[in-house]
Amino acid sequence: MQELTAEVVVAGAGPTGLMLANELALAGVDVLVLERMHERTGLSKALNLQPRTAEVLDLRGLLPRARDRSFATVADGHFAVIPVPYTGWDTRHPYQLGIPQAEVEAALEERLAEQGVKVRRGHELTNFVQDADGVTVTAGDLRIRAAYLVGCDGGRSGVRKALNMSFEGIEGQGHGVAADVLFKSTPPNAPTQWRSMTNMVTSQSPGKFIGVIPLAEPNLYRISFGDRLNRPANLRADVTDEEVHQAVTERFGAEVEIAEIRWASRFSDDSRLAETYKVGRVLLAGDAAHTHFPAGGQGLNLGVQDAMNLGWKLAAELNNRAAAGLLDTYESERRTVAKQVLDNIAAQNALIPTTPNQLALRALFRDLTTLPEVQHHLSGMVSGLNIRYATEETHSATGTRLPDFPLPSGNQASTLFHKGNWVLLTKTPTPNPHTEVLVAEVPELPWPDLEKILVRPDGYIANTTGETTAWLT
Question: According to the model, what pLDDT value does residue 353 have?
Fold first, then answer.
């Protein structure tokens, strides 16, 4: 048995775990990442980064790496498969970035390696025991003593199960399948580029859906299909070639020929939320804390933003910089956001018609989505741009994200956050309130009535006073 030490053990090297590890390493925290798989699968899985996630990556200088690996820029999102544009939001990234999950992981792992952290692959967490001072983790032939353990190990999280934690929610009735299918030639009437969500999903009968998204390779498509009213007896059963062929035939006709089914996976329309995100020195993030039907591709994005929120707070705790209760705000903030996402997905599922009454409701809802105010509200939900964390201040800015804007230097304000620090933006010379804060004088702020704003490392406005005692010691 090899004995190791670390300040934090991260279980799982998906996007959430890798983003968290990057945040911790950036703050000088000794982090060890465990992954049961011996190598990355290379499977596309999730396919998008929402606007807020693009902003989050930009705060750390990671967005160019993702953009270089992307295959599409999509001008809108969708709510219940009804396109909603991102117009009206003050963002430099009013789009979805089409990028396979495998490429997100590659970009994050590349940056992690540059910070001197290597993923321990082929090491599945098998046991952990915590006490008042830390956690002892066992993974194969490794035994690691750490201050904290974070489970980023997916919807079937072994960490969550070992905590005997309730994972309650809505048990759905249906299921879906996602498959990457290579055709011998372009199917008739199939899109060849992914630029919008318009007409990407069709329905042949009540409760059923078929979605088609072109991927980077010619004639390679993501085919998503399912039935909201019926599910197989075994949701973990392998997807058969026959199922995929049947869906393709329904969408394109029997004459379409499949060259290869590269990957296929089944998913449910259940929604579940962990009762708590922290038990002693063990925390949960990403799908380990919340799972849902993949409407709008919100899952990966929710997890990456969990990691950003948790990363700087856990680092502050370990570096003896955190004010009392700071780490607890991870759960209060992110569990609230997850509940909001689960609610909007439940609403989207309700708008997929299975009865004539629901068909009429959907038609009415579609009419409402032509109103700019409705588009703004819905796109804010699915993009993450509308997140506002609870604060004691009443100003409309506090708790919201900082819109990026140009600095006098010619750089964007987002570049001030590349090292994971706090930023005080001020119109007038202001003393530095804390060693962890970078002070930047600017001629204007996104809120003209304000003279200064204190911005958290994750890009959210802490206050308009510059006071740090509620956050840092």
Answer: 84
pTM for this entry: 0.96
- Which token pair is 237? 């059963």
Residue 205 has pLDDT above 90, yes or no: no
Q: Give the tens place of pLDDT for each residue, 342-352.
A: 999 999 988 88
Residue 275 corresponds to which tokens in the numbers above?
Answer: 């009762």
Question: Are 181 and 291 in a shared domain?
Answer: no
pLDDT in tens, 261-295: 999 999 988 999 999 999 999 999 999 999 999 88
**Chain centroid to CA 217:** 25
Where residue 235 falls among pLDDT bands split at 50, 70, 90? confident
What SS3 class is residue 322?
strand
Domain at 251, CATH number? 3.30.70.2450
Which two structure tokens, joined as six digits, stand for 165? 């934690």
- Domain span at residue 452 reads 392-473
Q: Reduce the DSSP state of residue 107 to 3 states and report it.
A: helix
- Kindly report the number of other CB atoms within 10 A of residue 23's CB atom: 24
Of 437, 307, 295, 298, which is closest to residue 14 (Cα–Cα)?
307
Which of 343, 346, 337 lies closest to 305, judged by CA? 337
- Domain shared by 234 and 313, yes or no: no
Contact assessment for residue 53 and residue 30, using Cβ atoms and an 8 Å cutoff? no
Cα-Cα-Cα-Cα dihedral sign, residues 37, 43, 45, 46: positive
Residue 236, CA distances (Å) to 166, 184, 192, 265 in order: 21, 29, 32, 9
Tens of pLDDT along 436-462?
Answer: 999 999 999 999 999 999 999 999 999
> DSSP states of 300-315 as a string?
HHHHHHHHHHHHHHHH
What distance lies between CA 124 and its chain's CA centroid?
23
Enter the tokens of residue 445.
Answer: 């702020």
pLDDT digits (tens, 9 = 90+) for 5-28: 999 999 999 999 999 999 999 999
Q: What pLDDT sits at residue 232?
A: 86
The DSSP secondary structure of 411-458, one letter per residue, reads: SBGGGGGTTS-EEEEESS------TTEEEEE-S--SSTT-SEEEE-TT
Are 179 and 159 members of one domain? no
